[in-house]
Design a protein that fits this description.
With 260 residues, the protein is mainly alpha-helical. Helices cover 68% and strands 5% of the residues. A two-stranded antiparallel sheet has the order 1-2. α1 (35-49) packs antiparallel against α2 and α5 runs parallel beside α8. The longest helix is centred in the last third of the chain and has 30 residues, at 200-229.
């Protein structure tokens, strides 16, 4: 795999409780073209985010990026085992999805603002009172509730065909991947006191509730993409801004309400 040119990333995302910009590591500056390229950039971004003071390894963006990298690793493993019906579809969707993430969280040179749904997480990534699982879930909210519909739309246009049963089956398979990882990922982010309290019906409700929320959000994104496909010009821009704003509202709630 060709990594392409690299860029030295300087973190300039702190707002509100801003500190000085922090010089960070390098990562490829060009967008990924395949899933290994996505994983290479997620690895680089993990190293970058874990250098961000004052939380370092518990930085808000690092928490979500860890989860995203775990899920993408599983997707790539299943692609290699030919577990999906359409390798072309799932690969392209993975790449388009990741491109939106990198465009949102890395410093921009095109003058466009950071999406509101992502700004919610980036502005508060250093706050000590927010626990790691809240950061991870807020990132899932921004990426699934905002980015996913647009990634589906760009995938459909790139492949030049409408989605059929095979694509929908592969899309649903990602739900199963989320479900298989949610329990372990939740426990990875729990603080020690949360693990002491965790057990029985509380743990079951948290696990199954989280899995259901992801499935519902992904179903909504599929339907949202179909609606966006019929919009153009100003109507498309207005709808896009509204989707972003709604995701931002949910993100703010997720960072305000402690999760077990």
């Amino acid at each position: 795999m060709t990594r392409g040119p690299v860029v030295t990333v300087t973190d300039q995302r702190q707002t509100g409780n801003a500190g000085p910009s922090v010089p960070l590591l390098t990562m490829p500056s060009d967008p990924p073209v395949d899933v290994p390229g996505v994983l290479a950039r997620l690895d680089a971004l993990q190293d970058i985010a874990e250098q961000h003071p004052p939380r370092y390894g518990e930085d808000g963006l690092a928490c979500f990026n860890y989860l995203y990298r775990e899920i993408t690793t599983e997707v790539w493993e299943q692609i290699q085992k030919n577990e999906f019906r359409s390798r072309e579809f799932i690969t392209r969707l993975d790449v388009e999805f990741a491109k939106r993430y990198f465009a949102a969280v890395l410093p921009r040179t095109d003058g466009r603002p950071v999406p509101e749904s992502w700004q919610v997480l980036l502005e508060r990534r250093s706050e000590p009172e927010i626990n790691r699982i809240q950061f991870a879930v807020a990132g899932v909210n921004a990426h699934v509730d905002f980015d996913l519909a647009f990634a589906l739309l760009s995938t459909c246009r790139a492949l030049g065909r409408p989605f059929g049963e095979d694509e929908r089956a592969d899309y649903n398979r990602i739900n199963q991947i989320f479900a298989s990882h949610m329990r372990a990922l939740r426990r990875h982010f729990e603080d020690w006191w949360m693990r002491v309290l965790d057990g029985g019906l509380l743990a079951l409700a948290a696990d199954e509730g989280g899995e259901l929320a992801v499935i519902v959000a992904r179903d909504a994104a599929w339907n949202r993409a179909k609606r966006l496909a019929g919009l153009t010009g100003r109507d498309f821009e207005v709808e896009s801004a509204e989707i972003d704003h709604r995701a931002a509202i949910v993100g703010r709630v997720l960072l305000e309400v402690p999760l077990l």
